Write a sequence for this structure.
């Protein structure tokens, strides 16, 4: 994925604020031949009723609202982020089992005792069998328009 | 055989599925119900079927269909009838969580 420093900072900051629970949100931008470009993030409520320290859920209703807002700005939802409090920034078996369509970018930030750490990006293999690491390219100029 | 009463119901396609619709974000489909509309969608773009439906032919658990601003789960599911000026949207739900092993 290609994005800006401020985007990664916003994901880290949300992970820290939500600690010890998992944070989650949407990545807005554009799917391009060069990969997913992320122009903005939209934090969203972790709707799990319990065990929010180890699990997150984004309701379809929240997706629908964010999708409509993104479209008005000329962007698409191109992925999601969530935090792993006191756990490494790599996809879990739960992440794989609960994954949605291939093509989205899944960003994970590790948060250790409220301090954000490693941030990684992943894409779901087309046959949904595994996640593949996705390089994060930091760009300074916005070269994709809504 | 039930005939389709309405045509040209637009379905909004989420970004990752547009690689199967020739890049189109909105597809117009024929059908008088959500089920008929979805059938027409996968008839037009067969590669979409594996992403929307499981082996039993029902919608995958993370796939939700919105009729305008309403989840069809709270209407009449895929039997929900369509009216003129309706819009459909394919909406995924997302979940996950931590690995079993922590930093220790």
């Amino acid at each position: 994925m290609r994005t800006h420093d401020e985007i990664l900072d916003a994901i880290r900051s949300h992970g820290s604020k939500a600690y010890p629970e998992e944070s989650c949100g949407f990545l807005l931008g554009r799917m391009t031949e060069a990969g997913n470009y992320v122009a903005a993030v939209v934090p969203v409520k972790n709707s799990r009723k319990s065990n929010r320290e180890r699990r997150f859920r984004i309701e379809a209703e929240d997706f629908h609202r964010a999708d409509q807002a993104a479209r008005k700005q000329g962007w698409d939802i191109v992925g999601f982020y969530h935090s792993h409090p006191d756990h490494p920034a790599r996809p879990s078996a739960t992440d794989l089992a609960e994954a949605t369509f291939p093509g989205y970018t899944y960003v994970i930030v590790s948060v250790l005792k409220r301090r954000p750490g490693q941030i990684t990006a992943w894409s779901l293999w087309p046959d949904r069998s595994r996640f593949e690491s996705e390089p994060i390219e930091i760009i300074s100029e916005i070269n994709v328009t809504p | 055989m039930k005939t389709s009463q309405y045509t040209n119901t637009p379905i909004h396609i989420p970004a990752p599925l547009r690689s199967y619709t020739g890049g189109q974000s909105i597809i117009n489909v024929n059908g008088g119900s959500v089920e008929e509309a979805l059938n027409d969608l996968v008839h037009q773009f067969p590669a979409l079927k594996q992403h929307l439906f499981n082996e039993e032919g029902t919608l995958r658990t993370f796939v939700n269909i919105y009729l305008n601003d309403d989840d069809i789960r709270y209407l009449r599911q895929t039997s929900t009838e369509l009216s003129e000026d309706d819009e459909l949207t394919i909406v995924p739900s997302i979940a996950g969580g931590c690995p079993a092993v922590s930093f220790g």
